């Protein structure tokens, strides 16, 4: 059995599905080097492959993230997972945060406070 398959089975046994990054690794900021090497990189890559294989519609994607509510610092990542993005445009980011707030996921103010919290330095 390949590593991705066995890891998906392990995560599904533990969490009921493949969880988003903040569930198994809540102690890391989205910009941490942890996500670019080692266990974090492996999880992000596995999650991305698994996520892309779901072919879910928007309602199913929202339901998944309601099952695993994101900490505010992960909101832009969640927006990208749900709706996709090919831009780092601040106006687009504001629109994503506003849309997520309207769906009950947290506000722009909460995002900024968590994103810039000193504990992540």
Report on the structure:
This protein is mostly helical and 121 residues long. It has two domains: 1-55, no CATH class; 57-121, no CATH class. It is 58% helix and 0% strand. The protein has helices at 3-15, 38-54, 58-67, 75-83, 90-102, 108-115. The chain is globular, with a radius of gyration of 15 Å.
Keywords:
2 domains; mainly alpha; single chain; 121 residues; 6 helices
Please write out the topology.
Elements: H1 3-15, H2 38-54, H3 58-67, H4 75-83, H5 90-102, H6 108-115
Total discrete domains: 2
Main beta sheet: none
Reading the helices and strands in chain order gives HHHHHH
Global mean pLDDT:
93
> How many distinct helices?
6
DSSP E strands, number: 0
Please summarize what this structure is.
Helix content is 58%, strand content 0%. By secondary structure, it is mainly α.
């Amino acid at each position: 059995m390949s590593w991705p398959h066995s890891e998906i089975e392990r995560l599904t046994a533990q969490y009921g599905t493949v969880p988003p990054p903040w569930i198994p690794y809540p102690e890391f900021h989205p910009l941490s080097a942890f996500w670019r090497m080692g266990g974090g990189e492996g999880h992000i890559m596995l999650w991305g492959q698994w996520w892309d294989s779901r072919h879910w519609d928007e309602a199913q994607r929202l339901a998944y993230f309601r099952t695993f509510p994101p900490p505010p610092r992960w909101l832009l990542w969640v927006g990208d997972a749900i709706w996709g993005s090919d831009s780092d445009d601040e106006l687009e980011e504001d629109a994503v945060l506003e849309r997520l707030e309207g769906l009950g996921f947290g506000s722009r103010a909460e995002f900024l406070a968590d994103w810039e919290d000193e504990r992540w330095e």
